[in-house]
Amino acid sequence: MTYATQDDMVARFGETELVQLTDDTDTGKIGPRLAVALADAHQIIDGYVAGIYAVPLTPVPDLVKRWVCDITRYYLHRDAVPDLVEKNFKAAMSGVSQVARGDMTLACAGVEAEEDPAADDLATYDDAPSIMANGPWGL
Prior knowledge:
Blueprint: H1 6-13, H2 15-22, H3 33-49, H4 62-76, H5 83-101
Helix pairs in contact: 1-2, 3-4, 4-5
């Protein structure tokens, strides 16, 4: 499972562009490099957010889907990356970084806080009577 699919990529960028970027064998079809790039982008997202959210993210927020598409598109441009593609990649990575820092939240399941076994081992303090209360200074 990846956060975005080939269909998501086609919907965003068109089949023609994806064929141009992935058809290494001149079949006129989208090549397997797309699936590899999608998986790579998915792992980038997981690597950044795993400390805050349970991965894989469920449900997958639309924003994450867009980030994966933009990161994947950037990865598919091997030689010359168009300015818009680079700009969208940087914006996606900035968003992912904001999530990792806790500056942005996603609508999905978070990581449960681990129980601290030492939290039950609290010291207790029994208050002894004051020596001041027993002498001429006692109130």
